[in-house]
Amino acid sequence: MQNTNPHAVLLASPGMGHFIPVVELGKRLAIHHGFDVTIFVVAADASITKSPLFKLPQTPNPLNLMLLPPVDISALVDLTTSVVTQLVIMMREALPLLRAAISAMKSQPTALIVDLFGTEALATAEEFDMLKYVFITSTAWFLAVTVHFPHIDEEAEHKHRVMKRPLDIPGCRSIRYEDTLDRFLDPTDRNLNSSFTRVGMEISNADGILVNTWQDLEPLTLLALENEKFLGRVVKGLVYPVGPLVRPAGRSSKSEVIDWLDMQPMESVIYISFGSGGTLSVKQTSELAWGLELSQHRFIWVVRPPVDDDVSANFFNVTNSHDGTPSYLPDGFYTRIQNRGMVVPMWAPQTEILAHQSIGGFFSHCGWNSALESMVNGVPMVAWPLYAEQQMNAAMLAEELEVAVRPKIRPNNGVIGREEVAEMVRRVMELKGNEMRDKAKELQRSANQVLMQGGSSYNSLSRVSKECELKLH
Ligand code: UDP
């Protein structure tokens, strides 16, 4: 049977940070660009299907979301294997399921769009004569490092890893040693190195690369990715900035947090969250709590029990304070922060919070979705990166875009004390914060424009749509 619309199959790898932007891309393709869309999700377990995010809106064209049966990789990896390698293996194990699902489709789909960890599936796209795209759910700068990675010679690697010099990326801003990718400095992790090299090559061979950024945010890097003199020589397909694709704030469901925010003055509250899974050590959690107290500013903090290798998790279920403060927070914390602060366990409605007029700052681990959500709401940040490419994101937010402040040392490489925490909160929420807020508001305006009809990100997706239509007919 011949399709009338192009049909895009999207593949999301495990983790909310991948799932959310892939779903947003699917929605835009179906709502604004005439695609039929099927999104396949690989997850560590089936609980994701219970998330409200799994329910999609009605769209003019079919938009379906399906969970591929979770795959158990526990027999294939040991505990020391990096998350990147684990994700790559999980996606590899899910491939036969994806292949079977595509071959069972009544009509031939036009394109396969995978995220960073799904690039092995591009071979399946070739097999079914589909166009093959990669969707980078991070920055163009991160894409630049990834496609350059297979071409880094020993000398450059030695200079960066051993001599601690910046890593040069052709045509782009160099990466300082302190800001380099998580685990990148570990030359002994051969699995990670070979996974990342392979991923870099597979991305370079895709028909096109979609990136969750926009033209005005990273003009030089995007130029370097197109230019034959720089990275354009290694990237076969075109690079399409299609962002910022973020989950819109839905104000329908009232929550305790939003009710509390409704009562606070304009731009007076700092929101603290470390993404879908980020945790701090026991000591760092305590210093952060003291720092928030010291700052005297209003806050909402999404708190997870800290993770220390040498402390039993059971310890954290204990409250040893008369006011219900958990044992890992300073004694009496809940009493002292009453009316001024709110602690939310585990998960909060982040996009609704960041869109609220009472929010004046975001203390964030700099996952790229969180960073985008902050920028589209014009909110300046305390950049507190934890892992993956977050240190690069923090560098870009603080030094290039000037919408964030950063701690003096890399979090995870030591404990950042309460005084520094308080000082960073004050810088964002008080005077210096105004300059960063103005810059963040400028980005908010440009972010709003690019996704409107005729805007640069809208046009990028129109070009992808044209390619797919040509393939269809
Ligand atoms: N998120 C949320 N509530 C939370 C924590 C996270 O809604 O309490 C959402 C957040 O809005 C973002 C995503 O989860 O869209 C996290 O993605 P990000 O790239 O920021 O970080 P990751 O979780 O991948 O480290």
UniProtKB/TrEMBL annotation:
Its EC number is 2.4.1.-. The keyword Glycosyltransferase applies. SUPFAM superfamilies: UDP-Glycosyltransferase/glycogen phosphorylase (SSF53756). Keywords: Glycosyltransferase, Transferase. It is an enzyme of class 2 (transferase). Pfam families: UDPGT (PF00201). Signal peptide: none annotated. Belongs to the UDP-glycosyltransferase family. This is Glycosyltransferase. It comes from Rhodamnia argentea. The lineage of its organism: Eukaryota, Viridiplantae, Streptophyta, Embryophyta, Tracheophyta.
